[in-house]
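Need residues for this backbone.
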């Protein structure tokens, strides 16, 4: 992982994580207007419109500059194609943040979420000095759990019937990783 502070980008072997631009809104809407993504995410609306994408994107730069959250487009390093999104919140008093991501369904199974998530963990610990990063996923989405395991996170617990999705209560599985370098 390589972080370019000036350009606000993170590079990995295959990916560039960069800030979203308004010009990404159409692609974001196309990727997110997908029931299979919606059913595995907590806050994404469905159907998903270009207006939804624009209102989401418009907050990113200010969040980044104020160290509130870091929301990146996951893009292919070779061709610049937008593959998904990854975000890291910043709870400064507790030196931790939540990792969240989605990948367009046509790009599932290629390891992009794992590669991007590993880079964000390194960014959180090496660049931002976090003590901990955590993530949560619906128990009906074990693929997300596999991503978290691959990046070294450990299951910390299950919150039973914690949120309501599509008129039914669902369990959230929590994972976390501690920055052992700061101890």
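Answer:
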């Amino acid at each position: 992982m390589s972080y370019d502070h000036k350009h606000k980008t993170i590079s990995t072997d295959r990916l560039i994580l960069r800030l979203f631009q308004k010009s990404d809104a159409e692609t974001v809407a196309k990727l997110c207007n997908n029931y299979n993504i919606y059913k595995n995410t907590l806050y994404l609306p469905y159907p998903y419109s270009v207006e939804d994408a624009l209102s989401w994107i418009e907050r990113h730069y200010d969040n980044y500059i104020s160290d509130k959250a870091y929301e990146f487009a996951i893009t292919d390093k070779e061709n610049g194609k937008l593959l998904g999104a990854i975000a890291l919140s910043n709870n400064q008093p507790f030196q931790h943040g939540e990792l969240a991501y989605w990948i367009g369904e046509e790009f599932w199974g290629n390891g992009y979420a794992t590669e991007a998530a590993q880079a964000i963990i390194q960014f959180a610990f090496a660049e931002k000095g976090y003590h901990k990063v955590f993530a949560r996923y619906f128990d009906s989405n074990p693929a997300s759990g596999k991503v978290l395991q691959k990046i070294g996170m450990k299951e910390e617990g299950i919150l039973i019937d914690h949120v309501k999705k599509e008129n039914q209560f669902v369990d959230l599985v929590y994972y976390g990783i501690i920055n052992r370098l700061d101890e």
